[in-house]
Specification:
The chain is built from 17 helices and two strands. A two-stranded antiparallel ribbon has the order 1-2. It is mostly helical. The longest helix has about 35 residues. The chain has a single domain, classed as MFS general substrate transporter like domains (Growth Hormone, Chain: A, Up-down Bundle), CATH 1.20.1250.20. Helix 5 runs antiparallel to helix 10 and helix 7 crosses helix 16.
Length: about 525
Amino acid sequence: MSSVADHQAPGTSSGTSSGTSTGTGTAGRPAPHAPHSPQATQGSSGTGLLIGLLVASAFVVILNETIMSVALPDLMLEFSVGASTAQWITTAFMLTMAVVIPVSGYLLTRLPLRTVFVLAMSLFSAGTLLSMLAPAFGVLVLGRVVQASGTAVMMPLLITTVMTVVAPEHRGRMMGTISIVISVAPAIGPTISGLILQSLSWRWMFGFVLPIALVALVAGARWVRNVTEPRAVPLDVLSVALSALGFAGLIYGLVSIGESGDAPLPLWLPLTVGGVALACFVARQLALGDRALMDLRTFASPTFSLSIVLTAVVMAALFGTLVLLPLFLQQALELDVLTTGLVLLPGGLVMGLLAPLVGRAYDAYGPRPLLPPGVALTCAALWLMSTLDTGSSIPAVIGMHVLMSLGLALAFTPLMTTALAAVPPHLYSHGSAIFGTVQQVAGAAGTALFVTLLSRESAASLAAGSSVTEAVASGAHTALVWGGIISAVAVVLSLAVRRSPAAQDVEGTDDSPRPVGAH
């Protein structure tokens, strides 16, 4: 089996193709524009096995972010808790993700890749087992926290590895595969949970995942290769504390917006504390420079910054509709859980089937032919969904959701690939951590926006004498109109995104992980 260290990105290894020295500079260092052979990502079974294993593992762990969304009624009944309490199985997961993801850049710098993988999958497996056997609701929430601790590390690990071992001309294809994990796994979570809950207990949702996670853990411990060279960098404890307080406060506040008035804290408190802590965190990172927990020099690239903004809009639309559509289908159209999951399945399949094709198209043509049409289709789908009412047909809902899924599939891979290609290699781990953090914050913001608008308009309609189904339909209309307005702004911004030349590493200015063999 050939070593994946033989297939590195420019400026990151001593070789460029099949382990040869072509294109290297003095002292084994790569020339600034070392050419890449197409075989750099195609010819190594070690590289393919590594990425395939990471993708499969990441899909399993990300799936759990939404798999419990339709199980809340069962949990409320079994543990005798209210809706706001039951929601903590999702809220706790998101909070933990927001806290741990910023630390993932440090972990990927400090520890070997295999060690990070084993740590992530061990935490996820332990959390899954704990959740499956939970005798009380508090134990279930704890299990979800442990699960999320492992999940938070997997996506930065996967993205950093791909950016390290895959040549630039093939990254779009690989990022297309990764987008299956990020977008399709959450989208089909409700479908899988609906199928399981139709005949089995909610505990089997964890029982379904646990054997797969354990197989991935054993396989990874054996086959994952250390493609980076860890560096002994100090951990700034104050940065960790500020990031935890800032991102957790922001996520908690956003999620609480959509809840009824029985939240344990007043809404302004977590948002204010989170905002202040986040501002202090940013100031701290800028002051630390190379020793930053989350290196914000990635934002020096306008392409990265614009792509992150658009990613936030796309993820807000994705997670907002993932929450809103099931509510509309079950409360306005009065569909059961299984049917609701099946209605959302075609859209998830569309994203999964298109993702590799979009990745290949990106490699050939760049983001311009893909991104603006993708954002425009997403915008059009949101406007069409705003016309849904109690008389809407299931095929119409499926068609609109498939249209939005098509738009998201066209947009997500170009955004992710363009953003990370615009930062130098020594910032890959930080760029992927920032990307993952933005996903969580944007997902929470989209959920909060859609649910809040839905709840307020529904309450007003009920007060005016409307039926429950009519009130929910009216609330969904208002939420989707605002989603359409925000996405219209994104259409304009998407026109400015262009593929930038691959950023080059800067020797001697970083403490980030380097490919094995780099000096």
